[in-house]
């Protein structure tokens, strides 16, 4: 729906900045909120000549340290734009908070749609295209993990060693700082944090890791392939196997005894199993996936911490909760902790 007062943006100031800094766009714009997600304020903008672009800034309110880093996203799409990893074209970055209260950036519009639920799959991806889409999904991640960050100007994106330890520290800090506003704590969050720190596998070569790779952060084209990967705000350098595990986590395993969630995107008929995708990735990258379950357990715990932080912002009224199922969000936090604990208990 077209909006005259886009949340978080001083319309006249932003359009004046774009006029001076982005030659390919001609304000004024028609602003349309892009639905989905619970964090950054993202709008499609259409200029007076009909050209489309996307503008993105952090949510309003006090943020966790280093969260919603627009400069990081900008650096990523700028470095990846000419590689085999599909990203929108970088158009302009503003680091002057006087314009609209926060840093923001503008990227090119890419045709395609994210997938959030079963209805999206049924409406946008015919069953005959789903294996092709799964192949594209895992192949794009393999392409990202095949890039040498030093060669594409991202060698200083983050520390190259100790990724899991750094992630545990980051997301445990997020959990701790969100306990009070979320009005929610769970002893398993603390027990699992200790387990992961005590049992970290040796890390392979550092690669760019997306950190939240899934169909919700991709654009799916009509031909059943990934046309763009978006939402790079928590991307850094680290262990590609942790990134792979996060991406594989929602996919159904070949174990028929595990219940299939009828609403899950990757549970829809026509998509292959988690094992199929892991094998395809392993063949493409020649990486050893023998400890994949450790990484999946870690990512279940991490997911609980991520949702916990989002839940805390809603509970603190930093973002409107209209239309948001807070009961389900609470359940997802607990469910991820339970699944992480179950996997850890099954590790050899």
From TrEMBL:
UniProt GO MF annotations? transferase activity
Pfam families annotated for this entry? Answer: APH
Asked if the record carries the keyword Electron transport, the reply is: no
Keywords attached to this Swiss-Prot or TrEMBL record, sorted alphabetically, are:
Transferase
**What InterPro entries does its record include?**
ACAD10_11_N, AGP_Transferase, Aminoglycoside_PTrfase, Kinase-like_dom_sf
Source domain of life? Bacteria
- Ranges for domain Aminoglycoside phosphotransferase: 31-253
- The keyword tRNA-binding belongs to this UniProt entry's keyword annotation: no
Q: From the Swiss-Prot or TrEMBL record, give the protein name.
A: Phosphotransferase family protein
């Amino acid at each position: 729906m077209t909006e005259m007062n886009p949340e978080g943006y001083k319309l006249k100031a932003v359009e004046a900045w774009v006029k001076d800094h982005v030659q390919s766009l001609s304000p004024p714009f028609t602003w349309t909120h892009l639905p989905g997600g619970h964090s950054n304020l993202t709008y499609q903008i259409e200029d007076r000549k009909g050209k489309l672009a996307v503008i993105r800034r952090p949510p309003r309110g006090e943020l966790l340290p280093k969260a919603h880093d627009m400069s990081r996203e900008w650096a990523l799409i700028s470095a990846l734009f000419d590689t085999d990893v599909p990203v929108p074209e970088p158009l302009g970055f503003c680091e002057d908070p006087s314009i609209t209260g926060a840093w923001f950036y503008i990227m090119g519009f890419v045709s395609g749609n994210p997938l959030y639920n079963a209805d999206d799959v049924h409406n946008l991806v015919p069953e005959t295209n789903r294996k092709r889409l799964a192949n594209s999904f895992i192949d794009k991640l393999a392409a990202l993990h095949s890039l040498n960050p030093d060669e594409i100007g991202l060698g200083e994106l983050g520390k190259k060693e100790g990724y899991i330890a750094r992630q545990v520290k980051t997301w445990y800090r997020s959990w701790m700082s969100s306990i009070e506003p979320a009005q929610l704590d769970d002893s398993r969050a603390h027990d699992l944090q200790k387990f992961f720190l005590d049992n970290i596998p040796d890390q392979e070569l550092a690669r760019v890791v997306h950190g939240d790779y899934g169909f919700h952060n991709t654009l799916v084209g009509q031909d059943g392939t990934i046309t763009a990967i978006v939402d790079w705000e928590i991307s850094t350098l680290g262990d590609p196997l942790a990134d792979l595990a996060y991406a594989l986590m929602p996919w159904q395993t070949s174990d028929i005894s595990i219940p299939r969630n009828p609403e899950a995107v990757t549970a829809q008929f026509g998509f292959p199993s988690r094992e199929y995708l892991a094998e395809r990735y392993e063949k493409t990258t020649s990486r050893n996936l023998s400890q994949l379950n450790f990484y999946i357990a870690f990512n279940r715990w991490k997911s609980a911490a991520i949702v916990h932080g989002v839940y805390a912002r809603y509970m603190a009224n930093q973002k409107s909760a209209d239309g948001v199922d807070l009961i389900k969000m609470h359940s997802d936090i607990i469910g991820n902790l339970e699944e992480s604990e179950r996997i850890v208990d099954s590790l050899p």
